[in-house]
């Protein structure tokens, strides 16, 4: 291992044959100031910013992937002339000196002439010693850079680095021809990665369309042979969707144990609904089971007494992220929260009615949820909640058609 005499000594790994360690001061431009901190104080303030003009790069423009100009501020041409010494050139390295210390980016042709602010240091290299793209890749990838920045910040009140600390940072320097070969290989590999990412995005988009097509075919009776077709083929009778629905309603009526007189669920209005396969029938969700909004009567909802207990509390975001099965939750309800709400059983279908409408997910554990979520629990296990979920997913872009201000309708098959 080789050690350099730095402000804070760090252990440096061995290098390939022909490489050596140097400091930034050794590889910086020799004919001008190699490291320059952006203007501050009276030189540049909020009153100097304009809607359009010369880009001014801030620390927000430095990301793990390099420089992003979409968060740049702007100053007038007149102000830019006052700050001429802070103009950037192609190949300059920008280095964050506060907050996310160590983020670096290389200035491209499109940013030549732009400015940078006080939270950034500009490093100008001697091109005969270090290829800028090689240096930028080294800063982003080398563990010794992270170790050095951590060492010089040890014990500091705020995360930050100054000019002298940057000048003393160790740099692994390869022969210049080898640096250029490395840069060319990096760009080739990154190009392949970009192509692979683009292909993956296309595959995911096609997979999403394929899943939607499968669900649509399923709820339209085109995925598997219908019971009517099988019955004719086997010369037998079968229970139609209408008969199944009638059996469900009769069973619910005969097993009623609620308060007061039993009330029949609203009948289905099939006006303008599409035709169904033979043996299928339209039904409302209340005919198939319980359909109710969650409860969150207690106000304000952010009362800390409601939370932190043993009861999972599902929110719209949990449903949206579930991808069909709700297996995680971000909040829990206390006993007081449960008194203001209700514990729905595992297997309940949760449907959002706020923000992203009709996102769905099936509970894998008992949980409470607010009135921005509707719960559906099928009665008697005759209709599967998963089937209802599949249908709602296919109907999201036609909710007005299927709901029309009433309860959503579902095609039922035995």
What is the topology?
Elements: E1 20-23, H1 24-27, E2 35-37, E3 49-57, E4 62-63, E5 66-67, E6 73-75, H2 77-82, E7 93-96, E8 104-106, E9 115-116, E10 120-123, H3 132-141, H4 143-152, H5 163-167, E11 170-173, H6 176-219, H7 227-234, H8 241-254, E12 281-284, H9 285-288, E13 289-293, E14 307-313, H10 316-320, E15 324-326, E16 331-333, H11 335-340, E17 349-352, E18 360-363, E19 373-378, H12 385-395, H13 399-403, E20 409-412
Parallel strand pairs: 3-9, 15-18
Antiparallel strand pairs: 1-11, 2-10, 3-6, 4-5, 7-8, 7-10, 12-20, 13-19, 14-16, 17-18, 17-19
Helix pairs in contact: 6-12
Describe this structure in words.
- The structure is a single chain.
- The chain is an alpha+beta fold.
- The protein has 2 domains: 20-174, Adenine-n6-DNA-methyltransferase TaqI, Chain A, domain 2; 229-412, Alpha-Beta Complex (Adenine-n6-DNA-methyltransferase TaqI, Chain A, domain 2).
- The protein contains 13 helices and 20 strands.
- The protein has helices spanning 24-27, 77-82, 132-141, 143-152, 163-167, 176-219, 227-234, 241-254, 285-288, 316-320, 335-340, 385-395, 399-403; strands at 20-23, 35-37, 49-57, 62-63, 66-67, 73-75, 93-96, 104-106, 115-116, 120-123, 170-173, 281-284, 289-293, 307-313, 324-326, 331-333, 349-352, 360-363, 373-378, 409-412.
- Helix 6 (176-219) packs across helix 12 (385-395).
- The longest helix is centred in the middle third of the chain and has 44 residues, at 176-219.
- It is elongated, with a radius of gyration of 33 Å.
- The termini are far apart.
- The mean pLDDT is 86.
């Amino acid at each position: 291992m080789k050690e350099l005499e730095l402000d804070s000594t760090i252990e440096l790994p061995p290098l390939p044959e022909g490489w050596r360690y140097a400091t930034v001061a050794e590889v910086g431009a020799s004919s001008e100031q190699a490291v320059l901190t952006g203007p501050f104080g009276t030189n540049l303030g909020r009153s100097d910013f304009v809607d359009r003009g010369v880009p001014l790069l801030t620390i927000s423009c430095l990301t793990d992937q390099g420089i992003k100009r979409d968060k740049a501020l702007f100053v007038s041409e007149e102000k830019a002339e006052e700050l001429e010494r802070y103009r950037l050139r192609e190949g300059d390295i920008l280095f964050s000196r506060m907050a996310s210390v160590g983020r670096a980016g290389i200035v491209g042709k499109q940013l030549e002439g732009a400015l940078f602010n006080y939270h950034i240091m500009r490093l100008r290299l001697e091109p005969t010693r270090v290829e800028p793209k090689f240096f930028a890749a080294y800063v982003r990838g080398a563990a010794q850079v992270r170790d050095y920045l951590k060492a010089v910040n040890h014990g500091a009140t705020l995360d930050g680095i100054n000019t002298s600390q940057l000048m003393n940072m160790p740099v692994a320097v390869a022969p210049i021809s080898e640096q250029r070969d490395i840069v060319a290989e990096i760009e080739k590999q990154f190009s392949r990665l970009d192509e692979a990412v683009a292909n993956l995005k296309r595959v995911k988009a096609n997979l999403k369309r394929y899943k939607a097509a499968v669900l649509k075919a399923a709820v339209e009776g085109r995925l598997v042979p219908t019971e009517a077709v099988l019955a004719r083929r086997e010369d037998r009778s079968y229970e139609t969707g209408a008969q199944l629905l009638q059996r469900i309603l009769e069973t619910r009526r005969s097993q009623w144990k609620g308060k007061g007189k039993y009330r029949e669920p609203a009948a289905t209005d099939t006006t303008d609904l599409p035709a169904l396969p033979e043996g299928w029938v339209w039904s409302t969700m209340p005919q198939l089971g319980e359909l109710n909004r969650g409860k969150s009567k207690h106000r304000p909802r952010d009362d800390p007494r409601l939370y932190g207990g043993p009861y999972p509390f599902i929110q719209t975001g949990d449903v949206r992220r579930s991808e069909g099965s709700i297996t995680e939750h971000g909040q829990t309800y206390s006993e007081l929260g449960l008194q203001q709400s209700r514990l729905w059983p595992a297997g309940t279908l949760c449907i959002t009615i706020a923000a992203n409408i009709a996102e769905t997910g099936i509970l894998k554990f008992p949980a409470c949820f607010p009135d921005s979520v509707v719960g559906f629990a099928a009665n008697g296990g005759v209709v599967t909640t998963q089937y209802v979920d599949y249908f709602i997913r296919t109907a999201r872009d036609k909710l007005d058609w299927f709901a029309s201000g009433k309860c959503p309708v579902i095609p039922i098959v035995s």
